[in-house]
Amino acid sequence: MTKEEVAAHLELIGTLMELRGDDAFRTKAYHGAARTIEQLEGDFDTLIATGKLAKVRGIGETLREVILSLAKTGTADVLEELRAVTPPGLIAMLRIPGLGPKKVRALNTSLGIDSLETLRVACIGGKVAGLKGFGEKTQQKILDGLTFIESVGERVRIDQSLPLGLMLLERIRALPGVLRAELCGSLRRRRETSKDIDLLVAAEDSAPIMQAFCTLPEVRHIVGQGETKSSIVAEWVTHGHRITLGADLRVVKPDQFASALVHFTGSKEHNIRLRQLATDRGWKLNEYELAGPNSRVACETEADLYAALGLDWIAPELREDTGEIEAATQHALPKLVEASDIRGVFHNHTTYSDGVNTLEEMALAAKALGFEYLGIGDHSQSLTVARGLSPERVRHQIAEIDRLNQQLDGFRILKGIECDILKNGDLDYDDDLLAELDYVVISVHTYFDLPIEEQTARICKALRHPATTMLGHATGRLLLRRDGYKVNLDEVLQTAAEHRKMIEINAQPSRLDLDWIYVKRAKALGIPLVINPDAHSTDELALFRYGVNVARRGWLTPQNVFNTLPLPAILQSLRIPA
DNA sequence: GCCGTTTTCGGCCCGACTGTTTTCAGTCG
What we know:
The protein is of the alpha/beta class and 578 residues long. The protein contains 24 helices and 17 strands. The strands form five sheets. Strands 2-4-7-6-5 form a five-stranded mixed sheet, with helices on both faces. Helix 19 links the parallel strand 13 and strand 14 (441-443). It is globular, with a radius of gyration of 26 Å. This is DNA polymerase beta.
């Protein structure tokens, strides 16, 4: 089993234990281990072989055995035992808002409910309301929840949730009495997907703000409304897509805003570490204050609060408890790359292949964005569905780029290609043609189902090709739609490092591939990353910002990102005559 | 199930809201 599969199975064991009614701290250990394994840096197989697993925080003797068993055999005794006593449909029931393991277990043992369908029938028949601990309202809430999970996916992509979140934020900031307001949660941390939108407001009087929030035009229904916290489901139509997403609003007093902002930005794991730091000093930390036994620490900003705990301010993107607390203690946090550091982008498409704008239109749009250069990477010949370029068309495009570069003042179009990696790891053009180009992006678009060893070998072979400059969308994943192809990324990164190749952060919000966890790993190996929008239109050039988010989550500084270099340095690095 | 300069047992982050209770359990973040 791969690292990801082991993590997913640990998660499953934890959930099944919850449904069985196991001790909460025991189940938490499994959930914690799942997360730890998922974010492990370094090669998983090596880690297992060298027995280093035992040194990882949160993994003791029992979990080590379970992980080894999962990795080797694909299952574990504890998992099989749990599966034998738990109907698989119970897990689906946990997705209903308001239903947790205890209630699901009660429904199963008392009424024999074991699926969403039997649950619906029992609710309609009024059987659930009669159960101890349940009632009419709970029964109705379950029915609403069943409808809700049919209409809403679990998570949405950041390009859908962030605009909706920012729009709600603007509406809230415009309300009278709102002193400060921010987006919080996974959106503020710029995670690639979100489950809901978290909003925080500072105000003296919360009631009118709650009232206004719950009656915003985007509100489809109100999940809960209290004095300081309300939850709604918002619906919004943009670019022809209907987006339905939950949104929570918290209102606090102005002097509570900094601690509340930290609290609601999370992540949960980051907050737990902060509270432990507070506890170590005999203080307590919650959303309202950082306080000692006799007095509270005045915090106007987040930085004040972090400083009181002996930490430098930590950018929201880093707050995942993957080393940022330690780095902040030692004043060793990286100065993260920003969108304004990006001087140009590679890997973009034009009407030559499957783009919708011409070469010239793309160049002018890139220049208007403030870029110094635009790299073109249309598809190569074998990808016929995307109108991949024949060698003649490539040379035609090269000639047109030369002409346009004569006209464009202070701006340069770079001649690249998104070259398919063929099934055997060869590139899609002969060496002579590849040598005429300024750079080569290599990508997998075919044979997604190869065995992991073959896929890895294929990509590594293409990476070793002297003409190769950078690897595009390393796993081919489509967020919330399709897993990437099976590939040993640690080996791919190792090969890239050895042969001094770059790796792309594909900034398409549906991809965000390389994942930030591996971005961090690539940085550790000294591999330059390149943030590319993979734009198929002029509008899509601006998507590079989503790639910057990934880079920041991966701890990258401007020095780690190739396209923060100005044009002269790019030309020199790629050995292009000025 | 994990962990340890309060160390091999007894802790483990903390509070809001809801619904079903009559003082609290469950869920959520």
